[in-house]
Design goal:
The protein is of the alpha+beta class. It has a single domain, classed as Beta Barrel (Barwin-like endoglucanases), CATH 2.40.40. The chain has a six-stranded mixed β-barrel. It has a two-stranded antiparallel ribbon with strand order 1-2. Strand 1 and strand 2 form a beta hairpin. The two termini are 23 Å apart. The N terminus is likely disordered.
Length: 178
């Protein structure tokens, strides 16, 4: 698995440099995107290779190696058909219709609530990829997540990102941490 991590990372790097305007796969997007369920937060072991320090475009990133409080505001963008089916940093296939996201330093996997500050809409996504590698963005969303937040046409929007910690899950009656 460790031997594959650099290759998976390089493939995923390309995925997270999108402008957020490459669109859905050929044809029309599914008509039921409004009904795509948010990611269901649960305790998962952290990926052994995707949370190691790395450098992209001359900048060094040191991912969190444990789940810890995190809240930030900034711009979100999204990535779509150009990367649909390609491997993410976690080694999973990117599904633009799943509720996932890419973040430069949050642990893989982790779960975050993303709130569109312009319209108040909120979604929960699973972080399974690295990016975005643009100074003006803090998270890259799947097409489905961007659609539900109402930022597909604009390509980006100002958001708040907050990690969902296992102890908060247990307190709210969600799946307990191991």
């Amino acid at each position: 698995m460790r031997a594959l991590a650099p290759a998976v990372f390089l493939v995923a790097l390309g995925a997270c440099t999108s402008t957020g305007r490459d669109g859905p796969p050929a044809g029309s997007p599914p008509v039921n995107l409004d009904r795509v369920a948010d990611a269901k937060p649960r305790s998962e072991p952290l990926h052994p290779g995707a949370n190691n320090p790395y450098t992209v475009l001359g900048k060094k990133y040191v991912p969190h190696r444990s789940l810890q409080p995190y809240r930030a505001r900034g711009n979100a963008s999204w990535y779509g058909r150009k990367f649909h089916g390609r491997l993410t940093s976690s080694g999973e296939r990117y599904d633009m219709y799943a509720m996932t996201a890419a973040h430069t330093v949050l642990p893989i996997p982790s779960y975050v609530r993303v709130t569109h500050l312009g319209n108040g809409r909120s979604v929960i996504v699973r972080v399974n990829d690295r990016g975005p590698f643009h100074a003006d963005r803090i998270i890259d969303l799947s097409y489905a997540a961007a659609y539900k937040l109402g930022l597909v046409n604009a390509g980006s929007a100002r958001v708040e990102v907050e990690i969902i910690l296992p102890e908060k899950l247990a307190a709210s009656g969600g799946p307990a941490s191991p």
